[in-house]
């Protein structure tokens, strides 16, 4: 029976096996239904072949996100109480020698299928300002379907956008998710969320409306200089 009680709307699942390249560490992602992945528990088991009884384990819990990302504080607030409980439970174990010691306390979510993380491998498109030739708009196209998945993409993209912004002010970035209607090319609508320089609510836009939105942002980047006589 699991010892850890998760807040409503939060679930936990193991990270993809491909992330555990050495076969010695195990990660668990904690996911909120709105905010996406909010925190991680990383467990590393140090095997002592000569003396199995001396095998020991270490764990680390952390909220996810870049320090400058405004959403990081929200993810941390969501995850902090769970992280405190995880720490208390694991510290109370007489020994942490196997990954099963950790799995026993986690209420792993098997009721729903969590989509693979492939939607994080998105395609990006940069639009340059015609005047200063710096990035004015960065678009991240993905097959994210929910608000939580859009937040996941934004979290993974935030560092790259912030770095590009250091080259020049005025950069705006959006995540564009998977189309929801496909009756014809003109009637396709996509969930779009601005996440830089600030977050905005998810809105549905057609392909033409996305083009208008981004074109307007490019024009605002370096507005024409008005010379009075």
Describe the fold and architecture.
There is one protein chain. The protein is of the alpha+beta class and 229 residues long. It is built from four helices and nine strands. The chain has helices at 70-92, 99-103, 147-165, 207-221, and strands at residues 10-14, 25-32, 36-46, 56-63, 123-128, 135-141, 172-176, 189-196, 203-206. It has a five-stranded mixed β-sheet. A four-stranded antiparallel β-sheet has the order 1-2-3-4. It is elongated.
Largest sheet: 5 strands, mixed
Helix content: 25-40%
Low-confidence stretches: none
Q: Termini distance? A: 80 Å
Helical/strand content category: alpha+beta
Query: For the largest beta sheet, what order do the strands appear in spatially?
Result: 5-6-7-8-9
SSE order: EEEEHHEEHEEEH
The amount of beta strand, in percent, is 25-35%
Sequence-ordered SSE layout with sheet pairings:
Elements: E1 10-14, E2 25-32, E3 36-46, E4 56-63, H1 70-92, H2 99-103, E5 123-128, E6 135-141, H3 147-165, E7 172-176, E8 189-196, E9 203-206, H4 207-221
Name a few traits of the molecule.
alpha+beta, 4 helices, 229 residues, four-stranded antiparallel beta sheet, elongated, 27% helix, five-stranded mixed beta sheet
């Amino acid at each position: 029976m699991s010892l850890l009680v998760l807040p409503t709307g939060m679930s936990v699942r193991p990270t993809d096996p491909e992330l555990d390249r050495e076969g010695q560490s195990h990660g668990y992602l904690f996911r909120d239904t709105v905010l996406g992945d909010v925190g991680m528990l990383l467990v590393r088991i140090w095997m002592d072949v000569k003396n199995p009884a001396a095998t020991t384990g270490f764990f680390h819990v952390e909220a996810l996100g870049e320090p400058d990302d405004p959403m990081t504080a929200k993810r941390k607030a969501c995850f902090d109480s769970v992280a405190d409980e995880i720490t208390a439970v694991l510290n109370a174990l007489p020994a942490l020698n196997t990954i099963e010691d950790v799995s026993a306390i986690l209420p792993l979510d098997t009721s729903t299928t969590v989509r693979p993380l492939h939607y994080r491998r998105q395609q990006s498109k940069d639009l340059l300002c015609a005047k200063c030739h710096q990035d004015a708009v960065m678009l991240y196209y993905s097959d994210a379907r929910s608000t939580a998945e859009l937040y996941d993409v934004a979290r993974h993209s935030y560092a790259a956008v912030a770095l590009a912004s250091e080259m020049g002010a005025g950069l705006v970035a959006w995540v564009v998710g998977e189309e929801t209607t496909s009756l014809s090319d003109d009637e396709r609508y996509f969930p779009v969320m601005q996440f830089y320089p600030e977050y905005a609510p998810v809105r549905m836009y057609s392909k033409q409306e996305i083009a208008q939105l981004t074109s307007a942002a490019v024009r605002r980047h370096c507005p024409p200089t008005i010379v009075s006589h």
